[in-house]
Amino acid sequence: MQATPMEAAAGDNIAALNMGSIGGAQAAAMQPIKAFVVGVDTRGRTMQESEVNSRLQDPLAALMLKLVPASERPQNLDTTVEFIVNASPADKFDFMTFLAGEGGQMRWTEETKDLDRALRFLWVRFPRTATGSRDQADILVVGSALGFADDAIFLQCASWDVANRTYNFYKRLNGEWFWAGQSHMAFDPATRLQGPFDGHVNGNLVMKELTPPWNNWHSSVAGISETALPPSHPLRTHPLFTGKEVANKLQTLVVQPAIDRFTSARIDSLVQGAKLTGVKLLINQILATATVNFVSSAERSKQRFTKNEYDLPPGFFLDIESLSAAGIVAGDTSKLRVSYQKYQDSLTEYDFRLQAGAFAQKGDTFFAFFVPAPAKEDVVLLQQLIDRGIVTKRLAACLMMVDLANPVYSDHRRRLAQYAPDEIQYSAATRSSDLEALLAPAIVAAAKGAPEDSAEAEFAANWAIPEADYAAAFQQRVDAYLAAVSARLTEEPNEPFFQYTELADSRRREFARTKLAEFALTLPVTKIAATASFLEMRPDGTVQRKPAGALTGAFVFIPETSSPAEKAAANLDRSGEQVASPSFDQLAPEKVHWACK
Which of 231, 62, 252 is nearest to 160 (CA)? Predict the structure, then answer.
């Protein structure tokens, strides 16, 4: 049987790879590759061969872009996956497909046929090691599920460059493939928060619903079935759909290892001899909220169950993982529960609904109490900084205990990043730095002229606790806070829990004002106005309005020397405008924010 053009091209690639010719003296003529790096390029440009050789040392570039003429490159999700599979010897690679969709649990009916369920595939390639074990993912392809064979629907890829220890991001736009940048560009003022980095804010792979129960993903606890698809749609019987894997594997085999890998590479890149640079950005990431992960109850919002209670996600109440990294154990979170009736009453009282255009469905998200929580990438960064001796556990604990009750969107805590130096002395050999000696005194000095309720004053009080005693003191404070919250959850009538319902809505609205909010069905809406005041938790478990003038939403530090435009871009919520969530499958490719979030 005659090989298809796709198979023939793949065979040529394999031959070139087996000859060791790519990048070597025997290499075939390299095909032109275009770049469009938002913030650097004003239009698409053809990359110089020297730039290609230095920057694009990833497998997607090697397999496809360097060898295949632009007119013959695959143009949709289906043919791109086919090409990569054919170019990857079966005994050396594994492949997995994952499926997400904010409307994935909504059955297709005549009444819902026009609803954009935002179904999208993430396809992943894993190389095998010499011993046959599965290595980390090296190529990821993301695209619309319903438009899997459409050459015009958005298509994006990320490919791990082993030599440069970074992800290269690519997109197919208007029939052409473009290099859009690499992970380390996420921190360059020229490219920060632009192009792929409006989603991959810190250069990492992104999976917003990273942990169980993986709301919106096909998983072991909630599958996305063919009932969400039109009755005659070819996707129903396509291997991408029928062979999809569960989100459990995406979390443990792909995203979490990828965050670990790039975070390590990022820190290594900042070590310059006996110095560590870029320190202020590192500290800002730990203290501010540029990205989040979403957490929820393990219980489905509409399901009546035997225990008659909803467990509430601990990450809503405090940053358990960051505190643990700093040596402070969260204590008993088992009492963070609310009765079935109180939760259902809150849905009625606040008119919860999922809404997209003319479509509206009463109730909450599929899993109950779906809220923003600290991002895994921030926790991993803090843990690696501690493990390397860059940040001491005491310094980390004193920082993270500031505004303990607000694990995300804490303007109070993120203020402290301004006192961090840009550069410190650091020894990788001895795992030691002078960051503590620089940062702690700077904050303590600032506290002397600050109000008693300022972040500086709170840190100074934390720092004043003797080193031998601070861990126990902080542990008691955490336990007291959790006890206060647990007690309020059992109070009658509903008012205390309704306060937490309003706080959850406030944090969702803060998220909705960032570019990470892409799809209308991601979050429920309520009768609370989108312009209502933002709220915060107090240490006694009560809720109050945020102080007037507080920065809200995601805040990302950039140097004071940045241009006004860069500063405006860094403060994602400054405009106060609600981010629109247009139809995923009909959105123009250049308007799509970067995917798999």
Answer: 62
